[in-house]
Specification:
It contains 21 helices and 8 strands. The protein is mainly alpha-helical. It has 3 domains: 119 residues, no CATH class; 87 residues, Arc Repressor Mutant, subunit A, CATH 1.10.10; 102 residues, no CATH class. The chain has a 3-stranded antiparallel β-sheet, with no helix packed on it. It is globular, with a radius of gyration of 22 Å.
Amino acid sequence: MKERTLHTILDGFQKMELEDLGSILGNELSPRLRKSQLVDQLHTYLHAEPRRWMSHLMERDVRLLRELVHAGPEKVQYQDFADYPSLLEVTGLVQYDDSDENFHKVWISREMYDIVAPDVEKVLRSCEKSGQFEVERVGLGYLNLYGILPTERFIDLVMDWYEEAHGGDFKELSKMLHQSPLVKMYRYTDEWGDYVCSPCVENVEEIFTQRKALGQKSFKPFTAAEAREAGAGAPYFTIGLKTPEGMRLEQMYRRVGYEGYELVKAQHDTWMEAQYTLEQNDALFQPLMESPLSPDLDEDSWLACCKIVSDYADSVPKWFLCGYSAAEADTCKADWPAWHTPRSQEPVSAEEEYPHWTMPEPTITEGYAGDLNSDFLPLGFAIPHVAADDPCPCGSGLRYCRCHGKYLS
C-alpha cells in the first residue's frame, strides 16, 4: 500500500485547520505564520514530542494507537463502523480504508509507528494514573445522558463530581479539561449560547426542536456513578445496562446468539435507536432482526423479544427529554406492536421490495471537511448526498444515517 508522508498529510490542510489541529494537540501555532511554516512547525512537534501530543488525545485515540502499534506498521486491523470517527482517522495520522462496506480497515504507517511506539504505553498509564481518562469518561457520560448541554452547565456537573471525588483541586481539573479535546471538538454555538454535545448526536437542531415542541426545560439529575457508566466503552456506549430493563435486554440478546463484540455493538445500536422513538422507527429492532438465532424464534418468542426491546427503549434517558425516559415523561414511547411484522408472512424478495440504487460517490476534500471551530463536528472527509434523517434511498425503511449513510460518516 502506498503511504503518504506525515508532511504531505499536514500540507493538505488549510491554514486555519492546521491552527485548530495544533491547538487540540497542545501546540498553539501563531496565525501570523505562513501555511508552509505552520506545516513545518507542526510536523517537527509531532516528531519531537509524541508523549506530549498523545496526552492531548481522547482515550479512544490512545487505545487505538496502542492497538495499531501492537499489530505493527502497515498491518491492517479490521473494525466495525462506529457512529463517529476518531480524531486520528479524520486527521490522517492513522490510515483507513472504507471501500469495503463490511469492514472498516485501519492501520498505522511506518513513520507514525516509529514516532509513537516508544511512548504510547507510557501515555496510556500516565493518563489513567492522573485521572485524565476518568474526567473524560464522566464528561462523556453526562453528554450521553443528556445529548447536549450548555457548556456552563456541563462544566458545573464535572466540577461538582470532581470536588466530591477528589477534594476540589480545581486547578488540576482545569488543566485536564483544557488538555482534553472533548470540549474543543464537540462544541455547538448558536445565537442562544454555547453548548457541548455527545459525539453520538447526529442532529443538534432536531434535539432543540423536539425539546421545544414537548415543552421540556428541566434536566433530570444523575449521579456521578451513572455518568461514569454512561461514558465508558467509547465509541460503543450503552446506557442503562444495570437497570432491570437493560439486564433483560442483554440476557435476551445472548439467547438469540450475540456474544463478545457483536453483543456490545447490538446493545449500543439499540440504545442509539432508542433516542429516535418519536415516530415509527424500524431500526430499533434491527439488531434483533439480524441476530443469529432470529429465524428460529416462533411467533410468541419473537413478540416477547420485541417487548424487551420496547421496554428498554422506554426506560433509557432520552436526549429530547433532557435525560428523562419516555416512561417517566409518559411520552415518546416505543409503539412496538405497530412495527411488528407477523413472522407467518412470507418475506418479500429484495427485488420486489427495494428499488435498485447505487451509492453516490462521496465528496472528498483535502484535510477536514470544514474547520474545527465551525458549528458542529465537521470532522470527516465524506459528505453524503442525502440528509441524515431522511429515509435511506435503498428502500430499507431505515434512516440514511443508520443504513448506507453510516459508511460515509
